[in-house]
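User
New here, help please:
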Amino acid sequence: MQRINLGEFEELVLLIAAVLHDNAYGISVLQEIEAQTGRQINISAVHSALDRLEQKGYLKSYLGGATNERGGRRKRLFSVTASGAKALSDVKEMRNTLYDQIPKVTLKLNFV
C-alpha cells in the first residue's frame, strides 16, 4: 500500500468534496462538514485544506459560471481526482483493517 499523506481534517474535506460531487466549493464544503459532524469550523481552514489537497493532486478546481446570487462572481468548484479517489479508498482500507484487529472485548468495554 502506498503511503497516503492526509491529515484528519484534509481527509474530512476530501470526503465531503466527494460527497458533494459537482457542487463542492468553499461554503458548500463548510456547510456539509457542519451538517455531517456538528463541528464548527471557519472558512479559512476549509480553503486552506482545499488548496493543500489540490497541491497534493487529490482535488482539481475549475471556475463555475457567474450567478446573480453571488453578485456575478464565479464559484471555484472542486472535484476529486483519480489520485484523490485512490487515497480515500486506501485510507478506508487501512482503517477497516485496523478496526478489524481490535479485540471484541475492547469494543464491548466501550459500550457498557
User: Anything to note?
Assistant: Helices lie at 8-20, 26-37, 43-55, 82-100, 104-111.
